[in-house]
Amino acid sequence: MAVAVIADKKTGKTYKKEFSDDVLGSLTGRRLGEEIDGIFFDMPGYKMKITGGSAKDGFPMRKDLPIMGKKRLLITYERGEKAKKGIRKRVTFRGNVIGSDIAQLNLVITQYGPKPLEENNTTEGEQ
Could you tell me the pTM of the whole model? Predict the structure, then answer.
């Protein structure tokens, strides 16, 4: 079972919806930024944009990494109050293609359907 976290920009709320591995199989090959139909999550009439996610082992998806698996990248960041510049660290990320090892998908609603979200048996979370 995987989890979809659906963000509603109108109300500022997020909704959690579990979906089966069959649905995840039909989403395999899609990329971050693509728009999908809400029928995958029992929400007909809705359109959603994939904005992120994470794998079962906890590695986050990265939009600029065009692979399905994991990759270790050397990233530069600033750390601390005095911001030491030039600190680089090797961090593992997951690519932007959805595969069978996804545990969570983050989605944003782009088009609303006929039924309100509260009626679609989703559990409400706080943002």
Answer: 0.83
- Determine, yes or no, domain membership for 108: yes
Q: What is the number of structural domains in the chain?
A: 1
Q: How far is residue 61's CA from residue 52's CA, in Å, rounded to a whole number?
A: 6
**Alpha-carbon gap, residue 46 to 4, rounded angstroms:** 14
Residues pairing with 47 in the sheet: 37, 111
Could you read off the pLDDT of 88-102 as tens digits, one per residue?
889 999 999 999 999
Compute the distance between CA of residue 87 and CA of residue 107 in angstroms, rounded to an integer. Answer: 32
Quick check: is 6 in a domain?
A: yes
* Per-residue confidence band for 107, with pLDDT thresholds at 50, 70 and 90: very high
Query: Is 82 a member of any domain?
Result: no
Residue 73's DSSP bridge partners are: 91
